[in-house]
Amino acid sequence: WLAVTFAGVPLRAASGAFKPLTCDELAGLDLVMGPKSEESLVFSGMLAELACKGVCVSHAIFPAEEVRQAREAVQALPFVRVPADFEPHYLGRDSKEKTALVDFDGADVPKIVADSPLPAQDKRFASFCAALSPGLEEELGIRIASRTNLLVRQTFADDSEEEVFKAPATPSDVEKEAFVGLMKRRRVCLMQFLGPLTGRLTLFPKGEDEDAEPIEIEAAPGLMVAFLTERYAYSHTCAEGATLVLQSWLLAPRPEFKIGDIGGDLDVLASMQTGAHPPKGETV
Predict the structure, then answer these.
(1) Distance between CA atoms of 133 and 50, rounded to whole angstroms?
(2) Under 8 Å between Cβ of 127 and 147
(3) Which residue did the predictor score with more confidence, 34 or 152?
(4) Environment class of residue 264 by beta-carbon count within 10 Å: exposed (0-12), middle (13-18) or buried (19+)?
C-alpha cells in the first residue's frame, strides 16, 4: 500500500496492514466522514437520515494528535456541575457529568483551549447548524435560528471525583429561566465523542413511538450523533470512567409577543368614576 497521512506524509505499508471495511464492520453507521469529505454530501446525507428516522449516526475521522490535544486542553476549563434537578433533562437520563460551556468569542477562554483543535470543532458545529437549517425547515417544518455555545461534558473518573463536584441543590432564578428557555427552544442535538473510553448513548423514542425499543449506541471515540429532540429523549453514561463529549443544541427562534389592535370604547379608560361620599364628621 502507498498511503498519505493527514499531515501529508507519504508512507508504504505491507498489504496486510490495510484492508477494505466490510458492511458488518460499519453496522450502525449512516455516514463516515473525514477532514476532506465533501461537505455538501455530508450535510445532505445527515439531513436525509434526520428526516427519515430522526437520528444520524456517523463516524468522524480526526488525526490522532488533534484528538490528544483536545483532551489535554479541556483540563484547563472551569468544570462545574449543573443543578441536580436539571441534570436528567440537560445531560440526559441517568447522566451525571461535569460540564463547561465555552464561548470562543469571550475573553476568558484559556489560551491552551483557544490554541487547541476545540475552536475548529465549534466552527464545525456552526457549519452543521447553517447547512442543516434550510433543509430542516423545508423537510420537517423545524425552524432553526441559532445554536448553543460548545458544551464540554466529561463523565466522572470515579466516585471520589463525583464527590468533589457536588450538584447545587437549588438553582437560582436566572438559572431556572435560562434552563426553561433552552428546553423549549432546543430542536436538534449534536454530540461528538472524543473518548478515550467508549460510553453508551441511549435514545428513548417519544410521542407516538414512545413504546418502541430504545436505540442503544456504543459511543466510541470518533462517533458523532445528531438527533431530533422532538422524537427522542437521551441518556449518556460511561461505567469505566472519564470520557469526553462535545455537544451543541440547535435552537428554535425565541418566542415573540406582539400586542394586537385594541378595540372598544377607549374613553372609558380615561374617565373618572365617582365613588361613594366619605363619612360625615371627624375622621379618626
Answers:
(1) 12
(2) no
(3) 152
(4) exposed
